[in-house]
Amino acid sequence: MRLHFLTPALLLLGACSLESEPNPPPSTRFVYPSGVAFWRPPTAGGPSASNGYLFVANANFDNCYDSGSLVALNLDTLSTQVNGQTVMVPRLGSTLPDSTLAFEDLATADESLVQIRSFAGELGLWVNPASGLPRLFVPSRAEGNNLNAVDVSLDANGAPVLNCVQGGVDCRNGALSLTDDIPASLSEAGRPDLPRAPSPIGVTVDAASGTLYVTHSEAADSPAKSSTNFENYLATVKLDNPTRDTLGFIPLSPEGYLYGGSDSVTVGAGYLYVTGRNFVAGINGTVGGNFVLRLVDKNEPGIILEPALQSVFSIREARAARVVPRPVTAAERAARPNFVRERLYMLARGPDTLLTVDFEYDAVPGSAATQPFFRVVSAVPLPDGVSDMQLIERTPGTSNADTNILAVTSTGDSAVSLYDEALGQVVAQVPLVNDLNQTSNPSQAFGLTVDNPAGTNAARLFVTNFGDGQVSIVDIPDLARPQDARVVAKLGMQQQRDPNQGTSVCQEN
């Protein structure tokens, strides 16, 4: 038998046919949703007139598609069919439906989606005072370790329009890398390589200072890939100019401090509170986090403090944190004009706990804050895998922290726990699990944002269910009774999973 060999022309044709076709992320459903943010325009007329807009970062965790994505939803345009009737997303404070509504087809318009790198983390939202419109920030842990910045506008019909800050709708092109092409001006004395922030994960907007803070879960070695000279940084960039020109790095492990990964930042009057987590240390594999909490002086960022929390309460690492002001009496203010009292809420792991810690110090404007006194107020057990946390104020704008409700997501049991500080206990756990086997198809409640408008005795939570590809809407119809919270609706089609491998099924349903 004679063998037939391909001619050069046929070889070229075969090579072209092997190239993968473009495979953009879908616009009709979520794909491993992670970060989430909410916005209602001030001109919308409040929650009784508008449901507002939801922004969701899709992590594309299984790399089923060419990229991750960031999508915008006008919640007033979503509809579903119930008993042959068209039903819209109920307004906050209205009568709740008898059963959970399912809005499966998101039908996102082309202009309401931009592509970003995969493995997205948290999603931060800043309202630009010049335009009154949001700018979104989301880090990606894929190649480039990018910080994606996306501007939001509204068309004549109120539909959200997304555009990358650097232009276009593919934010992978020209996105700010936190590990590559770092300006030489940022070099540090005694370190052989430039600072960088591998595996960026958390973003915190500080509108007062015009700064965005970015954490990264993996410590940076120097030189890169050497597994030596580790450091963790708090990356900074200006909200109105998120480019390499305004990029900065605050070292979190000065001499005598152990290095580690970081997760979350919350902004106090005089300090930034930064939580620590496990990280991957190059050739050494996964190493336990070496700090739980560090404080960075806002005016003198070279001053790093580490409260000895682990000597008071044994914990392995931390996740989300929120800080609120506490009341100061007139007598205290007269004696100490710059006296600050703050309460820090922090999620800890190993064991999973909601820690409440009070701090007291003096914050002189333009100068370094005094060294704070701290006291652990409470430690409340929570389900395994605590992830994100949001503060719900019964009376928004007041500094009486005893009225707060803390909403916490947990990936272990995929639920939202509600802690009522007035009672000092968890008063509700709202399950978000899907109807499939949790071993092969876990829901994994992850990201969290809240609609907590002033003057409304109700609140709404939006929770990304990372594993099943949906966003749950959880309403608290009466803030005096957070135990009545329940799931109102689920957005997006449930993600199909391979029961043998536990990974997603890439084909569209």
From TrEMBL:
PROSITE patterns associated with the record: PROKAR_LIPOPROTEIN
Origin superkingdom: Bacteria
Name by which UniProt lists this protein: Lipoprotein
SUPFAM superfamilies membership: 3-carboxy-cis,cis-mucoante lactonizing enzyme, C-terminal (heme d1) domain of cytochrome cd1-nitrite reductase
